[in-house]
Write a structure and sequence with these properties.
Helix content is 24%, strand content 39%. It is an alpha+beta fold.
Length: 163
């Protein structure tokens, strides 16, 4: 995994997985729950399911063991198999802020590097939109996304033949 650049209002990381662009996109989006770490949630109860609704306007959220749903963001761009972009509405106290003017952006690009190899580039930007606590959100994100993409890559490798 490569953390290629960090700027004040942007964090960019990438990972290369040994599956095709189409399969990488599908695994990231349609099998989101398979690779999303269970300890990465904002609800009070343990997270049961992580959901990415595959369409523009779709929700990104968790469903917890007690049945509650906690939104994380909304899908802004859906371009299979090249990219997906979503808003990130989680604030500095790990709560959902529904105001779209307070949300940062996460763009994930799937770049083929061969028939069975894909570079996945994640760029999280516009932290300043969060207002108070933007710096702490950026700091948390700069540690969290490498873990997330690491989980994604590990689960891709373990599941490459099963999807």
């Amino acid at each position: 995994m490569k953390q290629s650049r960090e700027q004040n209002d942007q964090v960019q990381i990438s990972v290369v997985v040994a599956i095709s662009q189409e399969r990488a996109f599908d695994f990231y989006t349609r099998r989101f729950d398979v690779w999303w770490p269970r300890d990465a949630h904002i609800g009070k109860a343990p997270m049961r399911t992580a959901v990415l609704e595959p369409r523009v306007g779709g929700r990104l959220y968790e469903r917890d063991a007690d049945g509650t749903e906690c939104d994380w963001g909304r899908l802004l761009t859906w371009e299979p198999p090249q990219r997906v972009k979503f808003s990130w509405h989680i604030d500095h106290v790990q709560q959902f802020d529904p105001d779209p003017d307070h949300a940062s952006d996460v763009e994930v690009r799937f770049i083929p590097e061969g028939p069975k190899q894909t570079r996945v580039e994640l760029t999280h930007s516009n932290f300043g939109r969060h207002g108070i606590g933007a710096g702490s959100i950026r700091e948390s994100i700069s540690k969290g996304w490498p873990k997330m993409l690491g989980e994604f890559a590990a689960k891709c490798a373990g599941s490459a033949d099963s999807f």
